[in-house]
Amino acid sequence: MKRRVMLASAFSGLVAMGAVGLSAPAYADGGMEKCYGVAKAGKNDCATKVSSCAGTSKVDNDPNAFVAVPEGVCQKLAGGSTTPGSKG
């Protein structure tokens, strides 16, 4: 029984560590850039000019909300911009 509890605890710890790793901003890794104006409401990464945390944008395609995308992809997205507050 102790072995089963230890294995369950270890597995839970690994899952939690993976979730923490996924919550880090993707643009912090090389090869990613912020793409403004393409995030759906509530799906933005990090803060905007009018909100303080991720997932708080109120409207789709807010020109001040961004999502992290691989470099070069933002220019291919309709309405995407690498600078806040501007469109395509």
Describe the structure.
It is a single chain. This protein is an alpha+beta fold and 88 residues long. The protein has one domain (25-88). It has one helix and two strands, in the order αββ. It has one helix spanning 2-23, and strands at 32-36, 66-70. The chain has a two-stranded antiparallel sheet. The longest helix has 22 residues, at 2-23. The chain is extended. The model is unreliable at 13-24 (pLDDT under 50).
Query: What is the number of E strands?
Result: 2
Low-confidence stretches: 13-24
Indicate the structural class.
alpha+beta
Overall average residue pLDDT:
73
Number of helices: 1
- Strand line-up across the major sheet: 1-2
What's the story with the biggest beta sheet?
2 strands, antiparallel
Distance between the termini: 60 Å
Cα gyration radius (Å): 17 Å
**Helix-residue proportion:** 25-40%
What proportion strand?
5-15%
Order of helices and strands: HEE
Q: How would you describe the shape?
A: extended
* Count of spatially separate domains: 1
Protein name: Putative signal peptide protein
InterPro entries: DUF2282_membr (IPR018740)
Keywords: Signal
Signal peptide: 1-28
